[in-house]
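Hi there,

I know you've been waiting on this one. I reran it after we fixed the sequence typo, so this is the corrected version. Both the input and the resulting structure follow.
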Amino acid sequence: MELLGLTLTTIGEILIGVTVLYVHHKILEEHKLDKIVFAGIRKEQWGGILGVLLIIFGYIIRLI
């Protein structure tokens, strides 16, 4: 049962991360931002990608 809880939590966290990254991507497509905001969103995207990868790696490590 613990594995099920861990799996569902991990899937939820990944879905939230991917959703945030998708929203950032859509905002960047608009190109109605100044350069400072544009650069900030780019940094947030890379941080989000790293976060999702760390969630996945953490899940794998817990399974081992």
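Quick highlight: The chain has a mean pLDDT of 88.

Best,
R. S.
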